[in-house]
Amino acid sequence: MQIDLPVIWAAIIGLGVFIYVMLDGFDLGIGLLFPFFEGKGEREVMLNTVAPVWDGNETFLVLGGAGLYGAFPVVYSTLLPANYMPLILMVVGLIFRGAAFELRAKATRTQHAWDLAFIGGSALAAMCQGVTLGSLLQGIKIVDDKFAGDPFDWFSPFSVFCGFGVLLTYATLGCGWLIMKTDGDLQRKMREVMRPLVAVLLLAIAIVSLWTVLGLPSVRHRWFLSGNLGWFLPVPILVVASVWGIFHALRARHETTPFVLSLAICFLGYTGLIISIWPYIIPPSLTIWEASSTRSSQLFALVGTVIVLPVILVYNAMQYRVFRGKVREGDPGYH
């Protein structure tokens, strides 16, 4: 039996993108929460919770991009031209955020400026990721395997709202992470921030879902007319259950549960996205088979990935194990 390499590569890239969203999401979320905590000690603690791991989190963004280039070159040559502006701005945001991580700890007179760079870079990167996702969902015009749309097709009310949805998601992840990694007054403040944040996030998820179903006939057919609603229905039900679980965990002062359930919401949202567009990789034009490279190219790249991916997963797991535990004010930093 012949292995379906496009499906395997779609799973690898999907896994890489999800792990990136899961890991880099909470440290981008810390940047989004920064403006609400102006105390120098609180900001130091917030940064120190992710200082040892933030750069390793971005490995999976590289994995997803490189895998896309090798396994689905048509996607690379259409998705990028359709979203040059948001993707370039995303990279700019990540650069500013990375520079702020390394330089603010050593700065004296300019530390406030680096704080602004950290906040702005985090917000810009998160917003642009959401806009790109919205652009992908609303569809990209492709003719003869080439982008045939306008350079600003990515800009629409739907894509901008998706950008705000990603901002809310990352801020929620950041709250959950800081509740787990801090204690005392900062942890209490994070609980207070997370309650309204989760409520607004649920509303944003509902609006995006309804907007997608009403605005995209292919998604509406996939969910309601294909006969698979019974299989798909657990996804929105579990989202609501996860939000209820977060509220309960916050009232009960659980420390790990809010973060775990925030990750569950991300996973369920990602699952809903895959359900909505499968088997298209660029809706509504290209399936994963139509966009794939030659079998020999995919097989060659798969051999390298099978060797490298476990190493990446192991060293990322090890860094979280080494730096586990609470972070408190006065602890030595990792800059």
UniProtKB/TrEMBL annotation:
Family: Belongs to the cytochrome ubiquinol oxidase subunit 2 family.
Keywords: Cell membrane, Membrane, Transmembrane, Transmembrane helix
Presence of the UniProt keyword Transport in the record: no
Lineage of the species this protein comes from: Bacteria, Pseudomonadati, Pseudomonadota, Betaproteobacteria, Burkholderiales
Subcellular location as annotated: Cell membrane
Membrane topology of the entry: Multi-pass membrane protein
One example GO MF annotation: electron transfer activity
Biological process, per Gene Ontology: aerobic electron transport chain
Main location class: membrane
Organism: Paraburkholderia tropica
One GO term describing the cellular component: cytochrome complex
Protein name: Cytochrome bd-I ubiquinol oxidase subunit 2 apoprotein
Matches recorded under Pfam families: Cyt_bd_oxida_II (PF02322)
Sequence intervals crossing the membrane: 6-37, 82-101, 113-134, 154-177, 197-217, 229-247, 259-279, 299-318
